[in-house]
Amino acid sequence: MTIQWFPGHMTRAKRQIEEKLKLIDVVIELLDARIPQSSRNPMIDEITSSKPRLILLNKADLADGDMTAEWSKYFRDKGHATLAIDANSGTGVKDIAGKAKELLQEKIQRQIDKGMKPRPVRALIVGIPNVGKSTLINRIAGRNIAITGDRPGVTKGQQWIKSGGELELLDTPGILWPRFEDPIAGFRLAATGAIKEDLLHIDEVACFVLRDLVKHYGPVLAERYGLTDLPAELADMQAAIDVLEQIGRRRGCLSGGGHVDFDKAAGILLRELRAGKLGRMTLEAPDEVGDTPGTKSTE
Ligand code: GDP
Q1: Which domain does 254 fall in, by range?
Q2: Does residue 131's CB lie within 6 angstroms of at least one atom of ligand 1?
Q3: Residues 196 and 129 reside in one and the same domain
Q4: Number of C-beta neighbours around residue 150 at 10 A
């Protein structure tokens, strides 16, 4: 789904989520485990501050397990519950209801003390496009349901999806805009396929992501593409271009005159990265939050 996020649409998306918050107990914020910071909506804390939050690190099957553990700690330290999941295969999904209940423990206990039967936890899934909201809702529902979400400007009636008597989920997720005002987040979003790469130059996306890959996974990259003299970190854009050129030569991406076709080389790198062919990789670490303009947490 392609959404053009104009300021009016953002205001509308924010208002639609605020309306839904009145119906639910817990916000389930879905993030991409490979880019937990870049895949967060920049205003999420402000928009959902009235409700407890469960942060799901989705696509954990593609992310680096050690880094996912670090990110889980980072969000837990901020007072959120966290869980790493893979909505595609269903790994971790059965633990969502329990985690959501943990957030409401005191409220549930009060109901029990009054002799009331605790009702299921009601939740709303929110996240940027392509983070896996529909996949997760379908998995929880146990069937394929048409999920349109609220496109900016379109509303429809709400339905509850019931899951095992413990969790009820609104069937339309809250769709929020990505952090595209921050250029580095934009490149990471494009690299993972969260935003269309044709919005940016593919060779530039590849060069930016190479900086992340060399920093965190240099030896793996060197091994896969037969790279020599790979530094521990790429100091500048030219260093990234040199690495992309080596990848292009190794993979035979040549245009006339023996020059490397950079777009072709970039396409190979990004395709292999997204498909997990380079191994499980996370592009950003919690200690980088706040390093670049626009990525600073609002908490
Ligand atoms: P939405 O726009 O947030 O509703 O995202 P979708 O549910 O349509 O998912 C976007 C893409 O991510 C689809 O191609 C899904 O198959 C894929 N996807 C969703 N969850 C996972 C996951 O946990 N692991 C992997 N590898 N892919 C996933």
Answers
A1: 183-288
A2: yes
A3: no
A4: 18
